[in-house]
Design a protein that fits this description.
It contains 34 helices and no strands. It is an all-alpha fold and 609 residues long. 40% of the residues are buried.
Amino acid sequence: MALFRALLLPFLLSLLLAGPGYAQRKPALPAKAGPESKPEAKPGKLSRKERRELARRAMLDEAARQPRVLTPKEREMSEAYFVDGVRYVLLEDYNKALERLLKAYALNPGNAAVNYKIAEANLLSGNLQDATNFGRAAVRLAPENAYYYLLLAQIYTSQKQYEEATNVYTALIERVPDSNYYLFNLADLYVAQGRLDEALTTFGQAEQKFGPQDEISFKKQQIYLRQNKLDQALLEGESLIKSNPDEPRYVLAQAQLYATNRRFEDAVRVANQALRTDPDNPRARMILADVYRLQNNRPESERQLKLAFESPSLDIDDKVRILIEYLKQLPDPGLNEMARDLAAVTMRVHPREAKAFSIAGDIEIVTGNRAAARASYLRALRLDNSRYQIWQQVVLIDAELSQTDSLLAHTTQALELFPNQAPLWFYNGVGHQLEKQPARAVKSFEYGRKLATDNPELLAQFDTQLGDVYHELKDYPKSDAAYESALTFDANNAQALNNYSYFLSIRREKLDKAKEMAGKLVKQFPENPTYLDTYAWVLYQLKDYAGARRALETALRYSSDATIVEHYGDVLFQLGDKEKAVAEWQRANQKGGASALINRKIKDKKLYE
């Protein structure tokens, strides 16, 4: 639109006031001007009916109207309407613009400039039918004005009437002197229509008029590629390089074209030509890396890729995209080191880019180095702390590494930025729980639970943790209710089944229910020592010592945890094998992690519970 709107007001007025070339005709609506009349400084608003009538009359055959010369008063009024209309077009108030311009048209429909401006206002307001008719009239009235053709061509193009637009450009080039430059527009229109041979012919005409042009060669090359004429496309590319040996754009495009079509020797030759001009050109290095990769020359491919990454001129987003492609293939022993190396280079070359450290953290996560991943994520957050996903990764790593201080610190920081994120409240509660701060843990869990009502799975996790914490606080009714809520969502929730049944066994309450839950868990996971120990302890409280012994002996095949060993000693004691019971207690004590009563049991050779 800038081309047409840049038309200066003096130019329009010069068209309006042109002498013999200004076709005077009988107005579509007679002007009511007499000896006492004055030009309207502020024209009134036309009704819809009047506007429709003016537009209808504009469509009438021009030849049917009798030309006449405007009076000075009519000429002055027409100029006033026209200038006011142009002003409203510039202000983008197209309704008011058309009201003024149509009044100017009513006084003198044969003025090309008025028709042109009405066409433009209709185009800008989306009335393409009227834009077409007035645009055609402008061209017919002033066939020597290139701007009128250009507007009409744009109107046709906006309606995807490419054939009509093509005809307009053809007429422009034929009729208007010094308009051969528009051969480029015509050729582009042919390309848009898929008329590639005609586009090539037109570009050839442009070459005849202007001589060899880089733009023409480049576009011809693209056409040849669309036609699958590779050899001709390559010839155009070599021609571009020959005429512009220091222009990296053409050299690299040609190298990429050779590489894409597996012409590897030529691709290497042309890429190295670019490097002779610019030894640090990362695009040339990338092309070489790709060629050597396709030739299974992995060491050289990786060397070129690292050299490309060393260049600050290779955009950070391009580097991240490449690292993401590596990430998709990880973990892979053959690629892990290369991915880490490229990530390290990216962080060093772009030390102020958070995304460099973020992608490095992702690579470390996938390749199994969680501590290094967290360090990279934290550096990313120092540069940009607005990324919730990175905070979430940091918190998850804290939890997985059981680093409670870090977990509490990072969740607290993150919650200042994202107070409505339920997962952050969950891990904040876990941190307090691990720090033996059950009251604070309950506050975090209860608050986060309110935010998770639309996420049943997360809600069940909150309920499970609340069951554990309320048990620590000895608020057993709330503990049981929380577990029941978690199991309502997922009846196979392993943590809820295990902890709920174990705590019931310790309290010696609802033991049949505890046995049912623990038994269900053991059936699902028959080799899990923790679940076997829980089941054994429920049986122990039910005084089924033989059943408890079988369960613990199975558990001991998979674990030698001090708690399981101590429980095994307790069961043996109840079964009357006191010597072996003491031996198991001693073994549990040596392992560390047994109950606070273990020393008394060993010393007194007596069971304490």
